[in-house]
């Protein structure tokens, strides 16, 4: 926009004249100062109240209303849809659980799309489609003069007024509702995580304070294999592993035998997978143990969480020759001979070690839960 000081251009009015002008005059002044000529300015609905106009208004309002309904559905789904894991065998519960993420995507996507379509349709059907011609100006400078600021505001208000938004209360209400509910969704998103207090019932076995390895009421927690069938219980004895071998194991309690749901959850819970290693005798002699965790191993057997301490990927690439455990996500490497401390990559903490032993029956069992955060963890926040 130019200030109109070129030779031959209309002179800007004085401040007193400017204050006297109404909006139409300011619009005309603004266009002439900018050297803009409006060639055509057709009103979208020259005759008010026609059926076509009302139909167009209802169409726009319908999209905004759809956006509001979808936005509300998003908030409801985010907070109340069943989100906790259910095993496939519980077919009905599993079905609803499996729809949680698609539901969030569907409702939020519909809310945003409907709002966008409403705005596009409103622009297309109610904003005048003027044809204007303007000389190109290369003038630059710091800030716009007062006259330019006032006239551009008038022009914007004029366009808004000519779009007849002032008398279209249905569109205004539904647009406000759609945008408002979407705003509510944006607020609910970060707040939803606080709806359930992770600190509450901290002794509960499902709380975030524990993993599935926590002994409950003194019951033994065995190391078991995952054979693909949750109900096929295969416990692990030391002699089951060759020297230099690694195996992924999960927690098992006798009280859960035959309980399909509990067994499935134990195999699925994200902080349960543990890597059980049997070191070769020559390597076992070189082990450096972590202070305070000198008795967490059983002979040559060491158990570490499979969850990377960086951002929680499964670290299951074990190179026997170098005794390094590699996380495929960001290439962190952990040295098995030095309490799985990181020796390369972005991980900053050692993998948590599970204290293990062998019980009277000769099976490998956990002596307690982990004593530090598993994965990126949140236990640190307690301090
Ligand atoms: S999650 Fe393992 S290195 Fe990033």
Automatic annotation (TrEMBL):
Q: Where is the Rieske domain?
A: 264-365
Annotated Gene Ontology cellular components are: plasma membrane
Gene Ontology MF annotations: 2 iron, 2 sulfur cluster binding; metal ion binding; monooxygenase activity; oxidoreductase activity, acting on paired donors, with incorporation or reduction of molecular oxygen
Please give one Pfam family short name. Answer: QcrA_N
For this protein, the record's Gene3D superfamilies field holds: Rieske [2Fe-2S] iron-sulphur domain
Q: Does the keyword Transmembrane apply?
A: yes
Bilayer topology annotation: Multi-pass membrane protein
Q: Where in the cell is it found?
A: Cell membrane
Family membership noted in the UniProt record:
Belongs to the Rieske iron-sulfur protein family.
This chain's protein is named Cytochrome bc1 complex Rieske iron-sulfur subunit
Species assigned in the record = Amycolatopsis marina
């Amino acid at each position: 926009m130019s200030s109109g000081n070129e030779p031959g251009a209309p002179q800007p009015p004085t401040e007193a004249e400017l204050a006297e002008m109404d909006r139409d005059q300011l619009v005309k002044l603004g266009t002439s100062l900018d050297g803009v000529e409006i060639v055509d300015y057709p009103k979208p609905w020259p005759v008010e109240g026609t059926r076509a106009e009302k139909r167009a208004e209802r169409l726009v309002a319908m999209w905004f209303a759809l956006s509001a309904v979808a936005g509300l559905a998003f908030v409801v789904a985010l907070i109340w849809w069943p989100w906790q894991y259910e095993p496939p065998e519980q077919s009905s519960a599993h079905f609803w659980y499996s729809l949680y993420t698609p539901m969030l995507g569907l409702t939020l996507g519909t809310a945003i799309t409907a709002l966008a379509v409403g705005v596009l349709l409103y622009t297309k059907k109610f904003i005048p489609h003027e044809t204007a011609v303007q000389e190109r100006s290369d003038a630059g400078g710091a800030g716009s003069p007062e006259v330019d600021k006032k006239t551009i505001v008038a022009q914007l208000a004029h366009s808004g007024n000519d779009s007849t938004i002032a008398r279209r209360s249905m569109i205004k209400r539904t647009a406000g509702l759609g945008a408002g509910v979407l705003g509510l969704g944006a607020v609910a998103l970060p707040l939803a995580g606080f709806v359930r207090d992770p600190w509450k019932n901290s002794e509960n076995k499902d709380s975030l304070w524990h993993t599935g390895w926590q002994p409950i009421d003194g019951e033994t927690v065995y190391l078991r294999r995952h054979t693909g069938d949750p109900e096929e219980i295969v416990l692990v004895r030391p002699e089951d592993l060759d020297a230099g071998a690694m195996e992924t194991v999960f927690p098992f309690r006798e009280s859960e035998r035959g309980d399909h749901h509990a067994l499935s959850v134990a195999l699925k819970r994200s902080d349960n997978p543990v890597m059980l290693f049997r070191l070769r005798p020559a390597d076992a002699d070189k082990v450096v143990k972590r202070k305070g965790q000198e008795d967490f191993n059983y002979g040559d057997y060491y158990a570490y969480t499979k969850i990377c301490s960086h951002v929680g990927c499964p670290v299951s690439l074990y190179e026997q020759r170098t005794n390094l455990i590699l996380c495929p996500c960001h290439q962190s490497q952990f040295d098995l001979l030095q309490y799985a401390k990181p020796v390369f990559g972005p991980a900053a903490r050692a993998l948590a070690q599970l204290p293990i032993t062998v019980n009277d029956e000769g099976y490998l069992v956990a002596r307690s839960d982990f004593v530090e955060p598993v994965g990126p963890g949140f236990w640190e926040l307690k301090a």
